[in-house]
């Protein structure tokens, strides 16, 4: 053996024993702690993703509530009839007929339909339709049938029969709007 090893044999044994103790300690104690720390870091990332998703849902729900005033409420047919009367006066058309049409029940909303027949000249009927579609609710003309009528005085008149559709939320969406 070399003189250096002979001289420092005791120290080398101590270093070897310390290295062995450190290796065994690392494998038994610290290794599991570092593995646990790695799992915790992964859990933190997953929890951050969950929080971001929950925040996006919250903000989407909050934004959806801002549209609440645009939807019809389920029992709001009186509002619709009242608004049709106002639009009739503003545009000069005459409403000949109003009758419920077939409603459509979807999973998250209900389409309420109303068949309306009006008479007026071309511009009056056009203004009537434009005003109906610009009301502060989701109300659209789905079908439109135009017929030209000649009266006794040979004045032309336009008869417009239309289906008006109002959308009312249902189910989970309705619960968002009611809270």
- % residues in beta strands: 25-35%
- Please describe the biggest sheet, giving its number of strands, its sense, and whether it closes into a barrel: 5 strands, antiparallel
In one word, what is the shape? rod-shaped
Identify the CATH homologous superfamily of the largest domain: Ribosomal protein S6/Translation elongation factor EF1B
**In angstroms, what separates the terminal alpha carbons?**
87 Å
- Give the second-level CATH assignment, the architecture of the largest domain: 2-Layer Sandwich
Radius of gyration: 38 Å
Number of domain units:
2
CATH class category label of the largest domain: Alpha Beta
Oligomer type: single chain
Written description of the protein model:
The mean pLDDT is 77. The chain is 54% helix and 26% strand. Helix 3 (77-91) runs antiparallel to helix 4. The chain folds into 2 domains: 3-65; 70-178, Ribosomal protein S6/Translation elongation factor EF1B (Alpha-Beta Plaits). The protein is α+β, with helices and mostly antiparallel strands. Strands 1, 2, 3, 4 and 5 form a 5-stranded antiparallel β-sheet that branches. It has helices at residues 3-7, 9-65, 77-91, 122-133, 171-178, and strands at residues 94-100, 104-105, 109-120, 139-150, 156-169. The termini are far apart. It has 5 helices and 5 strands.
Any chance you could write out the topology, listing elements then pairs?
Blueprint: H1 3-7, H2 9-65, H3 77-91, E1 94-100, E2 104-105, E3 109-120, H4 122-133, E4 139-150, E5 156-169, H5 171-178
Antiparallel strand pairs: 1-3, 2-3, 3-5, 4-5
Helix pairs in contact: 3-4
